Amino acid sequence: MSEAPSALPVVDPVGPTRTESDSVGSMEIPADAYWGIHTARARENFPITRRPISVYPDLIRALAIVKQAAARANKELGTLGAEKADLIDRVCQEIIDGALHDQFMVGVIQGGAGTSTNMNTNEVIANRCLELLGKPFGDYVSFHPIDDVNRSQSTNDVYPTAIKLAMVLSTQRLLTEHVKLTEAFARKGTEFAHVLKVGRTQLQDAVPMTLGQEFNGFAHTIAEDYERLSETIPWLNEINMGATAIGTGITADPRYADAVRRHLVDITGIVMVTSPDLIEATSDAGIFMTLSGHLKRAAVKLSKICNDLRLLSSGPQAGIGEINLPARQAGSSIMPGKVNPVIPEVVNQVAFSIIGADATVTAAAEAGQLQLNAFEPVIAHSILQSLAWMTNACYTLRVHCIDGITANMTRLTAQVESSVGVVTALTPYIGYTASATLAHTALTTNASIAELVIEAGLMSAEDVARVLSPERLSGLHPVTGAIDIVSAVESAGGVAPAK
C-alpha cells in the first residue's frame, strides 16, 4: 500500500479523544479540538497545500461575520431560539476579534465547493458554544453545528458571501498600502523635479527629461490602478445569502434573505445588496475574474516600474547608474561588495505569481457547471493570496526601496552633457539637417552638442544655454508659438531668437 506524502498534517489524534459520527461512519477526534468529524475528514481527504484556511485571517473573520448575521436574522424571525442565537453571536464576535483562528484547519484547496470550510466553521462555533454552556465537546444533541449554527444556510450561499467579504477587507487593506506607495513615488518626483536626465525609448538614448518626471509618471500609473481596484468593491458587495442550495431559498424563511443582509450591513458598515437573481448569483463567478484581472493589471504595471528601477540603478559602474537603491543585503557569496536590487526583484516575483493566479481564476470560473461552481476554493485561495502578497509587496517596495532612493548627480550630469538627444531641442532653430550633422559629429568625437553648435556659429552661447535649460528640455517651460527655422548658412549671421 502506498504511503501518504511526508510532512502532511497528522490526522490521527494523539492523546485523549472523543468519538464523533456522520453518515459515512465514526472517527476519533482530539478531545480538546473545537473542530469535529467533518473537519477531520477534510484534513484526511485534502492533504494538498499544507496550508490551512487560517492563513487568510480576513476569510476567518468573514465567515464569523456571516454566521453572526445569520444568527441575528434567525433570532429576529423566530427560526432559532434567542438563547442559542445569542450564544452563536457571542462566539462569532470572539472569532472576529481573533480567537480560535488556529482551529480552522481545513486546507485552502479542497473538493466540495467550500463545504469543508463551512463545516469547519460550524463545528468550531458549536463546540465553543457547548464549552460556554458547560457541556462536553461533541455533544451535538445540545448544540448542533448544522441544525443550529447553519440554520437557514447552505455552503452555497455562506461560502461565496464570506469569500467576497474577505476580498473586500483584503482589497481595502491593499488600497491603503497602494496610496502610501503612490505618495512615496510622488515625493521622489518632487525631490527630483529639477534633476535633468536622458530619456530612453527602445533602450536607446532619446530626448531629455527630469528624473522627477519619471517618478511622477510612476506615481500616476499606480494611482490609475487604485481607481480600478476600488471599482470592484461595490460588485463584491452583491451577495446571495438566502439562496441556500441553488438559489431557490429552500429551508429558509422568505424574509430571511433581506434580514441577513440588513444584519451584515449593521455588523460591517458595508453597503450590501441581495442579488436580484439568486440562482444566477449562486453559480456566477464573473466578479472574481474582474477582481483578479484588475489585480493582474496592477501587478504587471508595478513589475514594469520595478524593471525600470533595476535598469536605472544598474551597474553601478558599468550600467546606467542614474539612481542609487538602498543597499539591503550582500548580493553575492563570491563577489565582495556586490549589492543586488533585491526589493524590486521580489516585487517582480509577486507579479509573476499574480499573473499565474489570474490564469487559475479564469480556468476555475470557466469550469463551473449548472447551478454551482465547485471550484471556488481555488478561486478564493488564488485571489486572497494575490491580495495579501500585493499588499506586502507595496509595503516592502515603499519602505525598503523607494523612500531611500537617491540620484547619482555626477552620472546624470555627465550623461546629459554628452547625450546627442539634446540636439532635438535645437532643431526648431538650426534645422533638422544641421542637427543630424552635429549629432553624427558628437557621436564620433564625444564632443558636447552645445560646444559644437557654438563653434559652428549656429547659435550664441546665451541662446544655447536658454534653449538647453532643464526647464525647456524637460517641457516644464514649453516653447510655444511659431518658430523660424534657420539654415546653417543663414545662421552664420545670427540666430533666430528663442520663442
Automatic annotation (TrEMBL):
Supply the PROSITE patterns for this chain: FUMARATE_LYASES (PS00163)
**Keyword terms of this UniProt record:** Lyase
Query: Residue limits of the Fumarase C C-terminal domain?
Result: 423-473
Q: Tell me which PANTHER family the record gives.
A: ASPARTATE AMMONIA-LYASE
Claim: Transmembrane helix is one of the keywords in the record: no
User: Gene3D superfamilies, from UniProt?
Assistant: Fumarase/aspartase (C-terminal domain), Fumarase/aspartase (Central domain), Fumarase/aspartase (N-terminal domain)
| Disordered: annotated span | 1-23
SUPFAM superfamilies found in the cross-reference section: L-aspartase-like
- Where is the Fumarate lyase N-terminal domain positioned along the sequence? 25-356
Protein name in the entry: Aspartate ammonia-lyase
* Top-level taxon of the source organism: Bacteria
Q: Which organism is it from?
A: Leifsonella bigeumensis
Q: Which gene encodes it?
A: aspA
